[in-house]
Amino acid sequence: MEIKSCVGCRKEIKREKVWNNWKTYKIDISDKQWERKKFCSRNCSNNHHARKRYKNDPKLREYRRNWFKNVSKEKRKGYYEKHKPIKKKYLERLKKENPELLEKWKENYLKSIRKERNKIFERYDNKCAICGFSKVLDIHHIDKRRHKRGNSVMDYKKNRVIVLCPNCHVSYHRGILSKEELLKEYKPIILNEGIWI
Fold first, then answer.
1. Confidence of residue 196 (pLDDT cuts 50, 70, 90)
2. Closest by Cα among 158, 153, 160 to 129
3. Between the CA of residue 58 and those of 61, 62, 155, 192, what are the distances in Å?
4. Among candidates 105, 182, 178, which has minimal Cα distance to 139?
5. Total Cβ atoms within 10 A of residue 116
6. Cβ–Cβ under 8 Å, residues 141 and 155
7. Is pLDDT at 193 greater than 50 in this prediction?
8. Confidence class of residue 152 from pLDDT cuts 50, 70 and 90?
9. Which positions ≥6 away from 162 have C-beta within 8 Å?
10. I need a labelling partner for 142 at 20 to 30 A (CA). Which of 37, 39, 47, 105 fits?
């Protein structure tokens, strides 16, 4: 029996001898097929190539972002509810099968969050947008966050975000500062095509 790992999902692909009707061994996959075989299923190969295309094609990324902006809130909720259990299953399987890969995934995820946070701090010159304090800084979400548990890269990219010191942050949540005062100091992300939040 020969074993390969799938390029897309890292599952094991097996090639084994099977008993024939005439009580002789027969290999279920020929040598040529076995050399070419990289994926466990057609669905897995389609998903892998779709991810690759999304990474390499900037036009496709822009198109999907713009499409997602115009979708109604109800459809967005349905989209997130549909994909949450898929991600949970994948992470549970990684815990059992490949814990090293899971640790790498966590490290990369944290790095991407730190990158986004640093970009936001640089946009506000590493100072509080209201009082100018620079030693300790927080990031405040002006709009409600989509993900309740922890931070995510999409929270920083899609939502309106402002840099505040702990004092100003607490004073906003206690009602001393208003949302209008924050919006006066808010700096949107500016791209070549125009303003994108």
1. very low
2. 160
3. 5, 6, 21, 14
4. 182
5. 19
6. yes
7. no
8. low
9. 124, 129, 139, 140, 142, 182, 185, 186, 187
10. 105
CA distance 38 to 156: 36
- Taking the C-alpha atoms of residue 16 and residue 175, their distance in angstroms, rounded to an integer, is 69
Residues contacting 177, CB < 8 A, separation 6+: 130, 168, 171
The predicted-structure confidence for 70-93, as pLDDT tens digits, reads as follows: 777 677 667 666 666 766 777 788
- In this structure, are residues 116 and 156 in contact, taking their beta carbons and an 8 Å threshold? yes
0.85 surpassed by pTM? no
Amino acid at 75: K
Phi/psi at 195 (5° precision): -90, 130
Amino acid letter, residue 177 = L
DSSP state of 163: E
Residue found under tokens 């890969």: 101
What the block records as the tokens of 77 is 């909720």
What does the pLDDT look like over 38-65, one tens digit per residue? 888 888 888 888 888 888 888 888 887 7
Q: Which residue has the tokens 């946070």?
A: 117
The label of the residue with tokens 């979708």 reads 71
Answer yes or no: are the C-beta atoms of 161 and 139 closer than 8 Å: yes
